[in-house]
Specification:
There is one protein chain. The protein starts with 5 loop residues before the first strand and ends in a 6-residue tail after the last strand. It is built from three helices and 15 strands. It folds into two domains: about 100 residues, Lipocalin, CATH 2.40.128; about 100 residues, 2-Layer Sandwich (TolA/TonB C-terminal domain). It is mainly β. The strands form three sheets. The protein has an eight-stranded antiparallel barrel.
Length: about 230
């Protein structure tokens, strides 16, 4: 296990396609964490999973015990066969015969905030929405050259797709911008059958009758960030 311990850079997993880089840290004590780093709505964020790992007969076994944004991953495991190993590179092959190279690296000195616990994360209108008006950039904010980035939690009714209430998880830093975002997100309307399908797949223990949709949003001096889209 000592030869494998350390930080390795890998291709960004498909489930985090919006991220730009990914690293796996294999600790010598048998724990691991996978960190993906990127931008959402123009702001740097990270997501990831953690769990345990072991090496036996040239096979690395991983089991997930924590996940920042996809609860369905918790409890899942994977076995990866070591094809080749050097001081700087590992080539691993999964159970489907797909190989991937990992390169010895190190985590950035400063990691961005972790995007924790969404059942759904949206950065704008999508196939899940029937109506998704964008927050207006208030004229007062434009005159004062205000900018901000916030994260908003849309508590949405699973029966009809209506947003019951909007909670500010992370303030944009200005109440004018926060109010504009809350006003717009309160009017969002989702496709309830698709929400129920996602809820059953990602969090079957949820019996609250609602699902939380987390929406990060950036306000720039000239209006909402152009990074945001469907």
């Amino acid at each position: 296990m000592k030869a494998l311990a350390g930080t390795w850079e890998l291709a960004v997993p498909e489930k985090w396609a919006q991220m730009q880089s990914a690293f796996v840290v294999l600790d010598g004590n048998g724990t691991f964490r996978l960190v993906a780093i990127g931008e959402v709505a123009g702001a740097p964020v990270r997501v990831g999973i953690a769990g345990s790992w072991q090496l036996q007969d040239q096979t690395v076994s991983l089991k997930v015990s924590q996940s920042s944004d996809l609860r369905k991953l918790v409890g899942q495991s994977a076995s990866l066969r070591i094809v080749s190993l050097s001081s700087s590179t590992i080539v691993l092959q999964d159970e489907d015969g797909i190989s991937e190279s990992l390169h010895r690296s190190r985590l950035p000195a400063s990691l961005p905030p972790e995007l924790n616990g969404p059942i759904i994360l949206l950065t704008g209108p999508s196939e899940l929405t029937l109506s998704a008006p964008r927050p207006a950039f208030p004229s007062e904010a434009a005159q004062r050259d205000l900018r901000g980035y916030g994260i908003f939690r849309l508590h949405t009714d699973l029966r009809n797709g209506v947003v019951r209430r909007v909670e500010i998880e992370r303030s944009s830093g200005n109440p004018i911008l926060d109010k504009s975002a809350v006003t717009a997100f309160t009017k969002w309307y989702f496709k309830a059958p698709l929400l129920r399908q996602l809820q059953r797949r990602r969090d079957p223990s949820n019996t609250s009758g609602e699902i939380i949709v987390r929406v990060p949003w950036s306000f720039l001096h000239s209006g909402p960030s152009k990074r945001i889209g469907g």
